[in-house]
Write a structure and sequence with these properties.
The protein is an alpha+beta fold and about 400 residues long. It has a single domain, classed as Hypothetical protein af1432 (Orthogonal Bundle). The protein has a four-stranded mixed β-sheet with strand order 3-4-7-8. Helix 4 crosses helix 9. The longest helix has 22 residues.
Length: about 400
């Protein structure tokens, strides 16, 4: 191998990430380079100024961790001749798992909720739009890279990546790759917890990733953790709980995210942002592109996102009102044309379901984590909150009376 074909990328989270071959070709192409201009955590930097990291470095991190996870799993497990191939497939799936994200990541997808209700036709809305946009790229303009990888592995890369990213693994091998990217504990979550913590300047999501890798093994087609690794597994799940509670679901982050989402939805509905499924258009739909349109679109949204002013929160919402607001969040926001915006946030820090369960191996065999850990059972309860924002052009008393009126029917 010539050194010219190997690149060392210095990453603040994982140190040097070595990239070569097909991965380097993909990273060097325009569709992956576009991710440099898509913020990982949307507009969260308005509250946490350091959170300017992007989908570009996150995707590199997921690729790296997926490879490291399987390398360590191979050391702890019975020999599997396909493990080198599975590692390559997990790495390319990790590299491309977010290739379809549009401007401001999940905030754009949330904006599509408003756009569809305003009459816009959005393919794949409601089915993780970024996943299906990504697959449309992988199956078209990026398919030649899959063909090249197909010469290095015995499995079919295009087929495996499609099934894995759709959360629809068909075979034992695909289930193994899928667990690297979509499980309670996986490379995707591990990277964003570590990375988001670092850039937010908090400790909540930090975890002993080296230890975590060393207690992973394969049992048939399931990833399991050695019982001595329960503390680091608990640390991972607790870290995710605190990151959602403190960072991702921060009231002010939610307020500005919902304002931006409504603005994006309005621009999509009016055709100002259009043809988002065309590859040549996906290349331009970056944060900077949305910013350039937003500045002259609506003063309310411009002032909020550029200057952090113009919107406030209703700080106290009656408990009995919350279920109604959750149910009608989009309706209320549309009814008041963005002068009042209701934003619902929900997440489950820990869950156990088919194909997504943390298994632990001890002297009695394989058991679920909840059977062995007193820490995780309380975390099965869903985190849920509602944030109501309103334009400062409205007196606070008027906004509150609007909400009270809605709640009383």
């Amino acid at each position: 191998m010539r050194l010219a074909h190997l690149k060392n990328i210095r990453d603040p989270i994982h140190g040097f990430i070595d990239v070569e071959g097909i991965y380097l070709e993909l990273i060097s192409g325009p569709f992956f380079q576009r991710l440099r201009n898509v913020h990982q955590t949307g507009i969260a930097y308005l509250v946490y100024p350091g959170m300017h990291h992007t989908r570009f470095e996150h995707s590199l991190g997921v690729m790296y961790l997926a490879g490291e996870f399987l390398t360590n799993i191979a050391k702890n497990s019975e020999k599997n001749d396909l493990m080198p191939d599975l590692t390559k497939l997990a790495m390319i799936s990790g590299l491309l798992h977010d290739i379809g994200h549009l401007a401001f990541s999940h905030t754009f997808e949330y904006g599509l909720r408003f756009a569809t209700r305003m009459g816009a036709k959005v393919p794949w809305y409601g089915n993780k739009t970024h996943v299906y946009l990504g697959l449309s790229l992988i199956n078209s303009v990026l398919s030649t890279y899959m063909e090249k990888l197909g010469k290095e592995v015995t499995l079919q890369p295009l087929e495996v990546v499609n099934h894995v990213l759709k959360d629809d693994p068909h075979t034992k091998e695909e289930r193994i790759v899928h667990q690297m990217l979509s499980n309670v504990i996986d490379a995707d979550r591990a990277d964003y917890l570590l990375r988001d913590s670092y850039y937010a300047g908090v400790e909540y999501g930090k975890l002993d990733i080296s230890r975590l890798m060393k207690v992973m093994k394969l049992q048939e087609d399931s990833v399991v953790f050695l019982s001595k690794g329960i503390p680091v597994v608990e640390q991972f799940i607790l870290g995710r709980f605190y990151m959602y509670r403190t960072i991702y679901f921060h009231d002010v982050v939610a307020m500005y995210s919902s304002v931006l989402a409504f603005a994006i939805g309005s621009m999509v509905a009016k055709g100002i942002v259009s043809d988002i499924i065309e590859p040549e258009n996906i290349l331009k739909i970056t944060d900077n592109y949305i910013f350039s349109l937003l500045y002259s679109f609506d003063d309310r949204f411009r002032d909020a996102i550029f200057f952090r002013r113009g919107y406030r929160r209703i700080r106290k919402i009656p408990e009995e009102c919350i279920p109604i607001l959750k149910k009608r969040d989009v309706d209320i926001t549309l009814e008041y044309n963005g002068d009042v915006i209701v934003h619902t946030l929900e997440d489950s820090p820990y869950y156990e379901k088919e194909n997504e369960t943390v298994y632990v191996e001890d002297e009695e065999g394989r058991r679920t984590l909840s059977q062995l850990s007193e820490v995780v059972n309380p975390l099965k309860k869903q985190i849920s909150k509602v944030v109501v924002s309103y334009s400062s052009k409205l007196p606070s008393t008027e906004a509150e009376s609007m909400i009270n009126k809605i709640c009383k029917g």
